[in-house]
Amino acid sequence: MNAVPDDLLPEYDFDYSQAQPNRFAGRAAATVTLRPDVLTYLEARATAKGLSLGEMVNDMLEKDIELIEAVK
Questions:
Q1: Of 47, 45, 43, which Cα lies nearest the Cα of 34?
Q2: What is the DSSP annotation of the chain?
Q3: What is the pLDDT of residues 35-68, one digit of tens each?
Q4: Which of these, 26, 25, 28, 44, lies nearest to 36 by C-alpha position?
Q5: Model pTM score
Q6: Residue 22 CB: number of other CB atoms within 10 A?
């Protein structure tokens, strides 16, 4: 047990010598809120194609970007 209640237990004494500072700093995530009807449609399409919802939405957005870039 701990000598003082706020002390960490020995098993939580980690060696940080190999730690990489800010290794996730370059990653970004965006939260998007979909209307219920849109979400239902996309979930059904993703399931039918055997994709996750995220893969389905990213594929659709990539195609939209390609179309936008093609008409510039």
A1: 43
A2: --SSTTSPPGGG----TT--TTTTTT------PPPHHHHHHHHHHHHHHT--HHHHHHHHHHHHHHHHHHT-
A3: 999 999 999 999 999 999 999 999 999 999 999 9
A4: 44
A5: 0.58
A6: 6
